[in-house]
C-alpha cells in the first residue's frame, strides 16, 4: 500500500455535484486528460466510462495513480454521493490517499481563469512551488477551509489589495437560494477562501457582500467581483449591484471542468492534505436558521 506522494504525482480527479460530470488525470499539476460530460441526472451511467477513458487518454493505468481528489459538493444530493462513493471505493481498493475538494472552489477557480484568459497549464509551476514550501502548504490548507473551526479571516487580508478579484460561485438550490461561498485571487493565483461553503438566500448574500465592499476604502476594493456558475436564474438579483460596481461586476455562466478540480486536488495532495477514506462524506450544507424561517 502506498503511503507517500511522489513528486510527480499522478492524480485522478472526479466530480458529479452539478449537471456536468467532470473527470481529469493530472501529473505533478499538469493536465494529462479530462472528460467533461453534460450528464444531468445520469452521472452513474457515465462516470465509470469517463474515468476509464480519461485514464486511457492519459496513457496511465489505475495502478500508476498516486492519489484521488473528489469534489464533495455542495450540490446535487444524489450527484455528490456518486462521486464520493466511487472515489472512496477506488482509494480503498488501490491503497491511495484521497482528498476532498470543494466543488465551489473548483467552479470559482475555473470561471475566473476562463474569464481572464488563463489556461490550466499556467498553474503547474505555481502548484510545484507551493508544494515545496511547508508554510505555504499550511496556509493553503486553511484557505481551502479544511478545518471549519478555524477563522477564515486570515485569508481575507488578500482581498485588501486592488489586484485581487472576488469570486462568488453559485450552484442553484431553488427558491432564491444557492450553494455559494467567497474566494479571492489575483491573476496567476489559485483562489483562496474568504467565506465558507453554505446555502444562502442570494438576495441576502448579495446585500452582505455589497456592505462588505462599501466598508473598504476605494483603493482597497477588489479589481473585479465575479458571480459565476448557475447564474441565469439569479442574474436579476446580482445585477442590482451594477450601479455600485459598474464594469467591475462580472456575471459569467460557467460549468465545472475537471482540470480546475484536478489542479486544486494536486496542490492539496502534494501538501499532504488527505482525508480518511472511511470517514469522507459529501458536504451537505444547511440553510441558516434565520434564513430558513424566511421561507416558511
From TrEMBL:
Provide the protein name.
tRNA (Adenosine(37)-N6)-threonylcarbamoyltransferase complex dimerization subunit type 1 TsaB
Print the keywords alphabetically.
Transferase
Coiled coil, from the record? none
Question: Where does the record place the Gcp-like domain?
Answer: 38-120
SUPFAM superfamilies recorded for this chain? Actin-like ATPase domain
Superkingdom classification of source: Bacteria
GO molecular function (one): transferase activity
Q: Does the keyword Transferase apply?
A: yes
Q: GO:BP terms for this protein?
A: tRNA threonylcarbamoyladenosine modification
GO cellular component terms? cytosol
Q: Which InterPro entries match?
A: ATPase_NBD (IPR043129), Gcp-like_dom (IPR000905), T6A_TsaB (IPR022496)
